[in-house]
Write a structure and sequence with these properties.
This protein is mainly beta. 0% of the residues lie in helices and 54% in strands. The strands form two sheets. Strands 2, 4, 5, 6, 9, 10 and 11 form a seven-stranded mixed beta sheet that branches. Strands 1-3-8-7 form a four-stranded antiparallel beta sheet, with no helix packed on it.
Length: 122
Amino acid sequence: QVQLVESGGGMVQAGESLRLSCKGSGPIFSINTMRWYRQTPGRERELVAAITTGRATQYSDSVKGRFTISRDNADAKTTVYLQMNSLKSEDTATYYCKLEQDQHWGAREEYWGQGTQVTVSS
C-alpha cells in the first residue's frame, strides 16, 4: 500500500516562506503525477499545484508566481516539495499531497497524505 507523509507546515507571518515536503513509500511507479491540494473548513479541496515525473508543472492562478512545486533530485519518483513564498493570510489551509498512477491495464490509483497545517497571520 502506498503511503504519503507531508511535513513542513507551520505558522508564519504574511510575506514569509515555507517549504512543504511529501514523501511516498510503497509500490510507487516510475511514472506518476503528484499534486498538492489545500482545504479550509467548509470549503472544497482546491488544487494548488501538480507535477509529473517528466517535471511538467501546473499551478492554480491564486499561487502562480509565488509557489513552486518540484521533485527531489535524488528521489524524484517518491518525493515532492512545495516552496511557498510571499505567503498571504488566504493561503491558510490544510495542505494535502496526492499521488496518481496508472496500472498497466489502465486502472488509476490515487493516494492521499494526512495533511499538514499552514497558518499565515497578517
